[in-house]
Write a structure and sequence with these properties.
The radius of gyration is 21 Å and the shape is elongated. The strands form 4 sheets. Strands 2-1-3-4-5 form a 5-stranded parallel beta sheet. Strands 10-9-8-12-11 form a 5-stranded antiparallel beta sheet. Strands 13-14-15 form a 3-stranded antiparallel beta sheet, with no helix packed on it. It has helices spanning 11-28, 40-45, 65-75, 88-93, 109-126, 172-179, 218-235, and strands spanning 2-7, 32-37, 53-57, 80-85, 101-104, 130-135, 138-143, 147-153, 156-161, 165-168, 184-188, 191-194, 198-202, 205-208, 213-215. A hairpin with a 2-residue loop joins strand 6 (130-135) and strand 7. The protein is of the alpha/beta class and 236 residues long. The chain has 7 helices and 15 strands. The longest helix is centred in the N-terminal third of the chain and has 18 residues, at 11-28. It has 2 domains: 2-126, Rossmann fold (3-Layer(aba) Sandwich), CATH 3.40.50.2300; 130-235, LytTr DNA-binding domain (OB fold (Dihydrolipoamide Acetyltransferase, E2P), Beta Barrel), CATH 2.40.50.1020. One of its GO terms (molecular function) is DNA binding. Keywords: DNA-binding, Phosphoprotein. The modification 4-aspartylphosphate is found at residue 57. Pfam families: LytTR, Response_reg.
């Protein structure tokens, strides 16, 4: 399933692009979910982190596509963005926001198909699983490989990622079940660690490659060491 957002203030164009995307889905057999937005601010305020690709018009009346892309990148560093424009210089400026590409209007099916084929193939190669985290400030799509560890924090959870720390309202047991098959291990009542970041073990301390140290409890040490040995064995 590919979740695609269309953000354009021309409703006729949104309908046109929707039809082309549905045509692509029928031809390829790929399931496509389409979510329309009619302004950049609507996209920002109602952003859904399950979106895989955004077709984003640059010239819109209220909030233009470049400003919207800047805000979206703060919430989701992985989503693909294809700018829609009538002027090439706007498209080139869009690369500052890690745009996948830009398409000059009017949009032809052959060009759309080419861009989608490349995006789908690149997505299959990357195969980068992510976790959606929701809290009072919004929703975040976080690549699992960017999460160093998770700890309890004021009856909630704190995700320590490569980019920032994010509060999550789920329980430690829920996270342990959700992440167990992705090389995350519960090393302590209050901690889950990503084995990728483990540098070494000293007694009841886990040293991370980031320089941080987190505890490992005595009751969980045996299982943790077994999981770590399996992981390092696979990596060697």
């Amino acid at each position: 399933m590919l979740h695609i957002a269309i953000c354009d203030d021309e409703k006729a164009f949104v309908q046109h692009l929707t039809g082309l995307l549905n045509q692509y889905g029928k031809e390829t057999g790929l399931g496509i979910k389409i979510t329309p937005y009619y302004d950049g601010m609507e996209l920002i305020e109602q952003y859904d982190p399950t979106i895989d690709l955004i077709f984003l018009d640059i010239r819109m009346k209220l909030v233009n596509g470049l400003h919207a892309a800047e805000r979206i990148r703060r919430m989701d560093e992985r989503v693909g963005i294809i700018f829609l424009t009538t002027l090439t210089q706007y498209g080139l400026e869009g690369y500052k926001y890690q745009a996948t590409n830009y398409i000059i209007k009017p949009l032809q099916y052959a060009r759309l198909k080419s861009e989608l084929d490349k995006f789908v193939e690149r997505r299959r190669k990357e195969d980068d699983p992510s976790l959606v985290i929701a809290n009072d400030t919004g929703k975040y799509k976080v690549p699992l490989k960017s999460i160093r560890y998770i700890e309890t924090f004021n009856r909630n959870l704190m995700f320590h990622t490569e980019q920032e720390n994010i509060i999550c309202y789920k329980s430690m047991k829920e996270m342990e079940r959700a992440l167990r098959d992705n090389d995350f291990v519960r090393c302590h009542t209050s901690y889950i660690v990503n084995l990728f970041y483990v540098k070494g073990i000293k007694k009841l301390d886990i040293e991370l490659i980031s320089g941080e140290t987190i505890p490992i409890s005595q009751p969980k040490r045996k299982e943790f060491m077994e999981r770590l040995a399996d992981y390092w064995g696979d990596m060697l």
